[in-house]
Write a structure and sequence with these properties.
Chain lengths: 291, 279
């Protein structure tokens, strides 16, 4: 138990502090509007009235945490999942694009990494471009991909998934190249003394050895993939998905809606990363790489 | 059809040349030549396919027309570059990384803060922070200030986590040596902790270069004055003049690579002692 508090205590303190800060900021930022409203009605506000008003505005500059929680509760538990106002429905649309893109990106990344590790020519020609491409703001291409694919007749899930794939495949290539090259000379020599061919060396040595690297990249990749799906939803004109909720919220000044979509995206990201962490622990334990 | 055949022929020839070069003797020249040939081949393949299959320029303009567009609209591109990169990305990058650096030094003094903030920092670094963009645009207005604010928030946590990790990266033996010298906190910070943290700090700075540019561009999708790279991309996509979009993407790519390269060069000068910098 003390071990638990030693680790969780500081984190919980920090979270409480952040929530307190959030409330303070909400009061400070929304006070101007509350005072303005009161002045127009020829009333003066006492401090407690002012605080109460800043916490219950309909379009506050910064909604208080409990307003956001209430909105999330209203749009997840109280709405039917099939309703267009349900956050779960929007979240599912974003999640499906994220997962599809992530699957594409992982497959492409691993294949490319295998090619790079086994072919000198590919290593020398492709690798510098993979590294350079990481310095390019790929997200800027997102609107174009959506619109162009739309013009060809491809719409819905696939264009978003392609952006997700683009974002998630770079970390996986870099991680897997590192991982597949991780076996040292001695282990490779050992495989050679056993007269193992290229395929055997790959399946029995290189691939198992690369697993820790793969999972580290998968965690970065899935977070990037979610960002890709959200940004991919922006240019289609706010139809569906968490990104659409963000954009619609910013058009109509619905700050509470923006924040609830944002928190939903954060929970989704944290959940996905945690899920991969869990799979990582189970896999590595089964492989005997984790005590 | 002629164009397609020519393009594929060129591709095959270049493929053979590259395999030849890669498997031959390695010199400095081949290490630059091979990736360059690969890039040029991709461009020629793109050009040949677009022309040969007569793909509409609304879908995919050939590189030649992008280059033409780039050359003829330099003033617009420069204006967008200044608005997004110099005003939005760079100012946000400096403020965000500077704030994260100072916070990290403060956090490093307290074990409690470190244990409390690091997990949160790691968590936030994985979040889709770019979603904060509409809120910040609402708070700071349409001009570059809101873009800089998005960049500040995006770069803060990766930079914080990297710097805090770096400040704890000395060996026990080095810390003992500073103790035997009777070094004060500031002496230890300046002579040991900071230099030892430099590889980590530069790692964070390099990650943040890309994040800064992405943040500044995507924030413009949520509202901006009538210039800026993100603004230009979203409006020109709407007008289906994709050559302009590609020209803008070229600018973004060049700016991103140059930014990253500059930071990498500074890193090379500062952390010349680190094993990864020695050949």
């Amino acid at each position: 138990m003390t071990e638990f508090w030693h680790r969780a205590g500081p984190v919980l303190t920090m979270i409480l502090l952040l929530v307190a800060l959030w409330y303070a900021a909400a009061v400070a930022l929304n006070a101007a509007w509350a005072k303005d409203k009161a002045a127009r009605a020829n009333m003066s506000l006492s401090f407690s009235e002012l605080v109460a008003d800043t916490m219950s505005q309909e379009k506050p500059l910064l909604p208080a945490p409990h307003q956001v929680v209430k909105e999330i509760y209203n749009t997840t538990v109280l709405k039917k999942i099939t309703s267009k106002r349900s956050l779960i429905w929007h979240g599912w649309i974003t999640l499906s694009a994220t997962l599809l893109g992530f699957a594409f990106g992982t497959a492409l990344g691993i294949l490319l990494a295998i090619g790079i590790v086994y072919s000198r020519a590919m290593d020398m020609s492709v690798m510098p471009w993979v590294i350079t491409s990481q310095t390019i703001p790929i997200l800027a291409v997102a609107p174009m991909i959506i619109v162009v694919l739309n013009a060809v007749g491809v719409s819905g899930l696939l264009p978003k998934a392609i952006i997700s794939m683009y974002l998630s495949f770079f970390p996986i290539v870099v991680g897997m190249v590192k991982g597949l090259r991780a076996p040292d000379q001695m282990q490779l020599d050992q495989m050679r003394t056993w007269n193992a061919g290229g395929a055997t060396t790959f399946w029995k040595l290189r691939l198992p050895r690369s697993m820790p690297y793969l999972f580290a990249s998968l965690k970065i990749g899935i977070a990037a993939s979610l960002v890709g799906a959200i940004v991919g939803e922006l240019p289609t004109g706010a139809v569906a998905g968490l990104g659409a909720r963000l954009l619609a919220g910013s058009y109509y000044g619905q700050t509470i809606q923006i924040w609830s979509a944002l928190i939903c995206a954060a929970v989704l990201a944290a959940g996905l990363v945690a899920l991969i962490g869990l799979i990582e622990r189970i896999t590595l334990r089964k492989m005997g790489m984790l005590q | 059809m002629k164009w397609v055949l020519l393009a594929f022929l060129f591709w095959l020839v270049m493929c053979a040349v590259n395999v030849r070069l890669a498997n031959g003797v390695q010199t400095r020249l081949t290490r630059v030549l091979v990736p360059t040939l690969f890039g040029v081949t991709l461009l020629i393949l793109w050009e040949g396919l677009v022309r040969g299959l007569s793909i509409s320029p609304i879908l995919l303009p050939p590189p030649s027309s992008i280059a033409l567009r780039f050359a003829t609209s330099l003033p617009i591109l420069w204006g967008d570059f200044v608005q997004t990169f110099i005003k939005g990305a760079i100012s946000g990058y400096i403020i965000g990384c500077g704030a994260a650096f100072l916070t990290a030094i403060a956090v490093d003094r307290s074990d409690f803060l470190k244990r409390g903030l690091l997990p949160i920092g790691n968590f936030v670094a994985a979040l889709p922070i770019i979603g904060m963009a509409p809120i910040l645009v609402m708070w700071f207005g349409f001009d570059w200030q809101s873009k800089a604010a998005v960049v500040v928030i995006m770069v803060f946590f990766p930079m914080l986590v990297n710097t805090v990790t770096g400040l704890g990266a000395q060996d026990v033996i080095q810390r003992d040596l500073m103790n035997t010298y009777g070094a004060s906190y500031w002496q230890r910070l300046m002579k040991l902790s900071l230099p030892a943290a430099m590889p980590f700090i530069f790692n964070g700075l390099k990650i943040c270069t890309t994040l800064a540019l992405i943040g500044a561009i995507v924030a413009e999708f949520f509202g901006s004055p009538i210039r800026g790279m993100g603004f230009r991309i979203s409006t020109e996509v709407g007008r289906l003049s994709l050559d302009m979009v590609w020209a803008e993407i070229t600018v973004a790519a060049l700016a991103g690579t140059a930014f990253y390269g500059t930071v990498a060069l500074i890193e090379k000068a500062v952390t010349f002692w680190h094993p990864s910098q020695r050949n």
